[in-house]
Structures are given as structure tokens and as C-alpha cells.
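Project channel, design review

CF: Before we commit to the Xiphophorus couchianus constructs, I'd like one complete example in the thread so the newer folks can see what an input/output pair looks like. Taking Negative elongation factor complex member B.
RD: sounds good, go ahead.
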Amino acid sequence: MFAGLPELGIANGEDLKETLTNCTEPLKAIDQFQMENGILLPTLQSALPFLDLHGTPRLEFHQSVFDELREKLMEQVAVIAEGKDEDRYGKLEELLEKSFPLVKMPSIQPVVMQVLKHLPKVPEKKLKMVMADKELYKVCAVEVKRQIWQDNQALFGDEVSPLLKQYIVEKEAALFSSDLSILHNFFSPTPKTRRQGEVVLKLTQMIGKNVKLYDMVLQFLRTLFLRTRNVHYCTLRAELLMSLHDLDISEICSVDPCHKFTWCLDACIREKFVDSKRARELQGFLDGVKKGQEQVLGDLSMILCDPFACNTLVLSLIRNVQELLSQDALPRDSPDLLLLLRMLSLGQGAWDMIDSQVFKEPRLDLEVVTRFLPAMMSVVVDDHTFIVEQKLPSEEKSSLTYPTNLPDAFIRYLQDNRVACEMGLYYVLHIAKLRNRNALQRLLPALVETYNDMAFGDIFLHLLTAHLTLLSDEFGSEEFCSVVFDGFLLTSFSSKENVHRHILRMLLHLHHKVLPSYLETLMQTLEPPKQCSDPLKELHSQLTEKLEAHKKSPTPPDEPTSLDLGLHPVTVPTTSSSSAPTTPV
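CF: and here is what came back for Negative elongation factor complex member B:
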């Protein structure tokens, strides 16, 4: 406990023991020991007997003096470090040399740690001693650990790895949240709120202003993204940079070539829309990538692969398409739309680019603009035509029925093109948001086969199940249930457990709306297999309990939810000869 005192010429318990063993008059020896090792203040000696009279033990007195002096010394260390004396770090190093032998002594250890903390460059020998001792490493300040980590990537990786795992677990838990709401979904938290998450704050603190550690974290994220294809690592890459931006860490922000691009995109994500001004700014960054610096495209693509960025880009594209319809304009004539597609394409190609190390923007398939988008717009027009037809007086109505087939180009591009598929999926969400049952029944079966099974990914299913709550009353129809479940969700639930879980999540909220005869059959189908995860079993148990409770006491009808739909309806003009009203697309 008192190791290190003899090195400094200070007597310890062993010295006292030896003195008492060899002396002939123990009381005199104790007095002598106290005189030599007590507080060397002449005026104090005459005052100590007063403490004796009050029954205050000498240990208690010396301990209180010691504690007070230690606090003063620690304060003084901080004052010296923050001062402007050119030799301030020399003084701290001198103090470190004197105090370090006592680093294992609990009462002195805080002083040593305070000195280490305030030294911008701790002597390497001392750093190695701290690193080699688990107890010392554990209690030393993060400022000291940074100096250890920057030359020990494996040790830093061991510290960071649990945080990265925790981050992914939290993101995936959010996608399977028991809440099912269009207003409070995965994309609802603002960028600033997300950056207050525990993992982002801890990583930001661990990095501090150390560029080397920041680069290490980015390398970990790239490696994990390559290994797992998990896009949440892309989110963390952007959040980490913006967290450092919030703290005004210019040492890092000024050297990350993605900083201004990410800052601009962050503002768009906050608004859930890329306006024309910001679109031009983002285009300027992309066009400004100089020859020989193409590697930055790898990081830019990761930032654009962030689901929050993709969500913003596709919402902006859908809104852009609506505006083009209202203006009778073609997609290829819109520079903003072409730029949004360019960024979406760059983000969707992030994994391929980093994997191949070929840093070149992927070429956008022009037929997405000339064939897929016009086909998608024709679906909108079909729907609009049918709605207008229904509003005509009976004598003017034709025998027009709602179309059930989709244009071949629309279906083909959903299956063959990643960018087109992303847009198609968000168009389905847009239709659900408008509570358009006919269009939804027409579109959902086309999602059974999509590019890389994107329609069965957690992010889309998380959003779709929330959007379907807006059509809760439609689940009383066997035809609608058949399209949603038999025609889409149940086509892959047996091979994809995540789909099974999302169906159960939705039924936990909508079971009382589903046609009872259909629900009975559905529950038999959704019985979990013997080998399945605990969360799936838990969800099924919760739903079974809810159904039992509902049979005993039926729930009252839901109150309608007021909605801010985020996307502003845009009217599609009819021909000038028609006086029929227009309806939102």
C-alpha cells in the first residue's frame, strides 16, 4: 500500500516496525518518528495537544490536512497546465518524476493521474508502465488513453468494438420497435438528437482532437461495412463527423474532405428535403473532386449510403416527380431530379466502390430517367384518371375499371435496378400515406420480386407496416388482407425471419381490425417454427395474449390520427376543357 515511499526517502510502516524492534525505549522512539515524519511546522507542535484534549485522533487530523493539500495540489496542476508559462510542461514533468513512484498508493494516485492528464506528451516510459498495468490503465484519464491508443491500434480496437456493436444493436432494435406510427418512426429523430446518443458521445470523447484516432475509427467503420454490408455503419460515419463539428473540433473537421458536404447534407436531412440551393451546393462538392483525390468518393458514397441520407434523397425525388406532373414536364428536363438520382446512385454503390477500390462515380442508367420514371408517372396518371372518372355525373361515366396491371418497364426496373427499386418502394409508401387502397393493391404484388429483395429489408418493412396503419379499416376486407398478406408479406416470411417479425409487429396494433375469419387462418400460418429466435417467439406470445384479451373485452374504435404527411400534395392539371376538380397525387 505504501510502495514507493522509500524511493523518495520517506519512512513507511516497515521503517517504524524496524525502529520499534531495535529500540530500548518505544515511547521515545515513537515521539522521534512523529517529529521526523510529521508536518514540519514549528508552531503546529504546541497546538497538537489541544486536539488531544478534544479527543481528535492524530490520524484524523493528518488525514484531513493531507486531503486538503492533495486537492490544492491537483488544482495547482490544472492552473499550471492552463497557464502561459513556457516551462509549464517542464514543471509538470518534474512533478511526475517525483510522484510517479507512488502511483500505486490510492491516496496519491489521483495526483499522479492529474499530472498525466495535463501533459500533452507523456514520457513514453511512463505510458508503457500505465498500459502494462490493467488497474492503472483502467483509472487513467481519456487524455492519457488517447496517447496510448494512437500507437496501439489493436488496443484501441478492443475499446471501440463494444461501442460499435452496441450502436448496431440499438439501430436494429429501433427498426423492430413495438411502436408503430407514421409520426414516430425510425427516421423521426433529428440529426442533432441522434448525435446525443451514448455511442456517438463516447466515441467523440475518445477521439478528442486526435486526427490519428479519428482515422482509425473511420477505418474500423469501412472494414465493418465491407464485412457486413450493414448500412448503419454509414450512419455512424456521418454522425461522428457532425458530432465533432458540433463541438467545433477544427483540428479534425478541417482535414476531413467530406466535412462541408456532410454539413450541407445534414441540413437537408433535418428538413427531409433537398431544395434547389442546397442541391447546387452538393453538386459543387461532387464536381469539385480533383484528379488524384478520387478516393474521397469512397467516403462521400458511404455518407450518401446512410439510410437517413437515402430517405431524404428519395423523399425529395418523389416530391420532384409530383411537381413535374403538375407542370406537364419530363423527368429528363429537371436538373434537380438528375442530381438527386446521381447522389442516390453514388450512395447505393458505396459497398461496390469501397470493395473494388475503384473510386469512380457509378454511371446512372439513363433508362431510369427515360423509361422507369415515365412508367411510374403513368401509374399516377392512371390513378388520377380513375378518380376523376368516379366524380363525373353517371351519364358521363365510361365503363372504365381500375387498372390492375403495371407497365412492364416499371416491374422490370424494380427487379433489375437498385436506384429505380428504391424509388419504387418509396412511391408505394407515398401511396399508402395517401390512403389510396386501389393503387396500393395494384402495386404491392409487384414487390414480391425486387432488386436484391429490397422490399423485404427491415427499413422498408418498418416504414410500410407503420404506413399500413393509416388503412387500418381496410383490413376488414378479405380482398385487401389477401393482397397485403398472401400477395406480398407471406410470400417470403418462412425464409426470412425478419419479415415474420414485422408481420407480428403490425398485427399487435391492427389485430382487432383484421377480418376475424382471415385472422384465425393467419395466426395458424404465423406459428413460429421450432428453431427460431427468442424475439420472434416473444412477439408471437404477445400477440396471442392480446387476442385472448380482446376476445374477453373488445377494444373501442380508434380515434383518427391527425397527420403532418411531410410531402405536400401537388395537383395534376386536367385538360382545359374539363371542369372536373383535380386531386392530390
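RD: helpful, thanks. The chain is about 65% helix and 0% strand.
CF: Residues 160-364 form one domain.
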